[in-house]
Structures are given as structure tokens and as C-alpha cells.
């Protein structure tokens, strides 16, 4: 495997979450359900009383479900459809961890989004002459949102902050690339 392909694979593995947790949960639920049915079948076969319901009663109640009221059947069907849709979405959608990668010719780096947020918060603090406690940065899948709450009685140069954040974000060579949004609160905070 070539080095760039290996680096891409490493970055993808570190920046996307596996589906093993969801698969293990669904498999465990199915195993518990099938184990219960097996226990009930064995208890019925040896003539012992059932834990909850006999297999015959379970089958007959399932077959007679068509006689139930229509709203109840519709509600049960809707719940089953929603659960099925959630399982399909979980299995198909890519899980993203709060990380992004950068690949160069000689190395690959994976950086946590919290590290990027702290770096941008420090940049905003210096550029806007704002207390670091008054800066909040959140890093999403493709955007960086910067919220600045100025100290009461002090003006904040929004353009200087915007330029500093844009320069800082453009200096990163991460995939996926980031865009920045800066919001300065109209209300101040007492220092």
C-alpha cells in the first residue's frame, strides 16, 4: 500500500467512528429475545409453567393481532417503522468523531476539534483584546462558530476578530476544510 493511501486510511479511521457499538447492541437485543423464546419453548416441551407466556399463546396472539383496533395497529406499525428507519440511518450514515486530519507528503496528523477551538479562542482573545472567558468557540463538521461577549463599556473590533479568525482557519490544512462565523454579542459582560 502506498504511503499517501495509507495516510488517508489512517486519517479516515481516526476521524470516523465505527458502527460496532450499534451492531453489538442490536445483536445483544436479538440474542436475548431468541434466548427467551428458546427457554419458553423448552419449558413448554417439558411441561413446565412458562416464565411469561407460552409459545402457543404468543403465536395465537400474534395471529389474532389483525382483530385489534386500527389506531393501535397503526401506532405499533409507526413505532416499528421509526425504529427500523433509525437502525437503517445508523448503519448507512458515516459516523464522525470530533476530529479532522491533515496529510502531507511525509506524515499524517489527526487533530481534535477541541484543540482547534482552543487555538481559535486564543487568537480571538488576542485579536479583539477580550478576556478569554468571554470567547466561546464551537467547531462543527464544516464551520467554526465564534461567539464573543465584550466586557461592558469596551468596544470590540469585529472586523479585526473576523480577519484573525479567517487567517487562522485558512492556515489549517485540515479535511474537511472549515469556514468561520463570528458573532459579537450586543450585551456586555461585567468583568
TrEMBL record:
Q: Where are the transmembrane segments?
A: 21-46, 66-93
Sorted UniProt keywords: Membrane, Transmembrane, Transmembrane helix
Q: Which domain of life is it from?
A: Bacteria
Instruction: State the name under which the record lists this protein.
Output: DNA/RNA endonuclease G
The species is: Subtercola boreus
Amino acid at each position: 500500500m502506498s504511503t499517501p493511501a495509507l495516510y488517508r486510511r489512517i486519517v479516515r479511521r481516526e476521524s470516523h467512528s465505527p458502527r460496532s457499538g450499534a451492531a453489538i447492541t442490536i445483536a445483544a437485543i436479538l440474542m436475548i429475545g431468541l434466548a427467551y423464546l428458546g427457554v419458553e419453548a423448552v419449558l413448554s416441551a417439558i411441561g413446565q409453567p412458562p416464565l411469561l407466556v407460552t409459545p402457543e399463546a404468543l403465536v395465537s396472539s400474534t395471529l389474532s393481532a389483525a382483530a385489534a383496533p386500527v389506531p393501535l395497529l397503526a401506532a405499533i406499525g409507526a413505532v416499528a417503522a421509526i425504529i427500523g428507519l433509525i437502525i437503517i440511518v445508523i448503519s448507512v450514515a458515516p459516523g464522525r468523531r470530533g476530529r479532522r486530519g491533515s496529510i502531507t507528503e511525509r506524515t499524517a496528523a489527526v487533530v481534535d476539534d477541541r484543540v482547534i477551538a482552543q487555538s481559535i479562542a486564543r487568537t480571538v482573545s488576542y485579536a479583539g483584546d477580550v478576556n478569554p472567558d468571554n470567547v466561546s468557540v464551537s467547531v462543527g463538521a464544516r464551520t467554526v462558530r465564534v461567539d464573543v461577549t465584550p466586557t461592558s463599556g469596551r468596544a470590540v473590533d469585529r472586523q479585526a476578530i473576523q480577519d484573525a479568525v479567517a487567517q487562522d482557519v485558512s492556515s489549517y490544512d485540515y479535511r474537511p476544510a472549515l469556514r468561520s462565523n463570528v458573532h459579537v454579542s450586543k450585551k456586555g459582560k461585567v468583568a
